[in-house]
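Q: For a teaching session next week I want to show students how multiple molecules come together into a single three-dimensional assembly. I've collected the sequence lines for a complex. Could you give me the predicted structure tokens for the whole thing so I can convert them for display?
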Amino acid sequence: MRLEVENLDVALSGRQVLRGIAMALAAGEVVGLLGPNGAGKSTLMRALAGLVAASGRMRLDGEDLPSLSPAARARLLAYLPQARIVGWRLSVRDLVRLGRLPWRRFGVSPTEADEKIVEDALALMDIAGLAGRPATELSGGEQARVLIARAVAQATPALIADEPASGLDPAHQIMMMLALRRLASEGRTILVSLHDLTLAARWCDRVVMLKEGQVAAEGSPGEVMTPERLADIYGVTAHFARDKEGLILAPTGLTIAR
Amino acid sequence: MRPAVLNIILGLLMLALFVASMAVGPAELGISESVRGLFAGGGEAAGIIMREIRLPRALLGLGIGFTLGISGAVLQGFLRNPLAEPGIIGVSAMAAFGAVLIFYSGLAGSTLYALPAGALLGAVVAVLLLLALAARSGSTLTLILAGVALSSLSAALTSLVLNLSPNPFASYEIIFWLLGSLKDRSMEHVWLALPLMAAGWLLIALSGRAIDALSLGEEAAASLGIHMKRTRLLIVMGTALGVGAATAVAGTIGFVGLVVPHLIRPLTNRLPSRLLLPAGLGGAVLLLAADVAVRLVLPAGELNVGVLTALIGAPFFLWLVVRSRREVFYAA
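A: Of course. Below is the structure for the complete assembly, covering every listed component.
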């Protein structure tokens, strides 16, 4: 499904946080949302999830997102917040199963189809072996994978993940990006915010770069992640290389002494 | 344990204690005499004792225990906080203060509904204040502090009313009522409180999905299609109706809502919605047992059940704070 944002403005307690945001995401692509701290990445994601008031257009396959009921929206778009909250000692499987809530009627227990989706989400995130463990007793990286598995189990056409790779070891960071790519290859639309420029350059089909609440650049990593732009947006210098998979980017220092 | 098995066991325990509650009292009635008295009708002493003294007491024990248990469970789920409980967060104290005001104003004598109305209003005000003060930040500390502040405020206002009360007899009446008891209640009290409490149970049950989703925090819950404003309203009204009605007929009975969800939670898969029914049943079991115990310990019947639950509950609370700091931290 196609996720379109036009002319989106968000003000939080009187302060304009996002201004005139426009972007379009096609089905099957992983789009990275980049920008320094405070650029408005999380606010943009929260606006898409309907958690903050926004003016402007947000449409998913022509459906106007703000006009949908919370339940209908939850069947179209899954959102993974940045804060990793696990209340109670729920087992990993019970926690991931919460992703099926928008699809279940009141008082009806999960169907076999629900359970299959839950098991697939566990397998995709490589946590099937932890399914019976209490989610509160896992390492931070394991918890991150459990929580994104919950959003995956929501089985929505669009998935929005705020910093899903932060705090993961390199292998699991790459695994996270591969899992997102696999979800995209099944036809989902993925928007993922990232601080790690190396990951973004390597694994995103396209990136949208925010600066002070506005879109500063948009395009494939190779096109838009240039030395000038990284200096402008992040104030960093970087080493660039290429291999047959694409761009290799490693930040090396600051452009100005801070 | 499978949820059905747990509920059946707790249900049977509750029935057994209900029967025990019907069988205990200063009048020494035999079993056949009791049963005949309960069902036969007529004006014999046994019939009056069973139908007008013991039956309302047992019914209120069951209903109020269920209300306190389920209210504690839903508040803990909603606030993602294992220390939430109508007593600790000040709801019972405000309900009691509302009732005390009615006592003081002299309205209590005018109609049977004045006292419950005062208690209900107190409970609603308390829950609204708590939501305004603590629910947004969602932190354990804020909630407990807000509850402490609210309880202190209610206690101070109650003291003020006692201080100003026109005669010592009125003060004594208020104090005794505050201690919490199921003694000498009539079927009128039952008909008054039970429908309100049942309405509260229903509202609480409707929030089951929402409190499950809230295990992941408010933002994730909202993104799962949970209507947060509606959920807040359901839980506020549900607890206020139930606890207000319970306090109105029995005074303050503390700690049942704290202790029971804790004892039951490890027997469930810990999904907040799965805890509601067993916590209600467990609350009924605990309060009926405590009410039987106060009659057995002091057969003259002067020990108030609210005093006993506080004596058991307060040390339990302390132990909980020490032991579960980790779980509280996670929940915060």
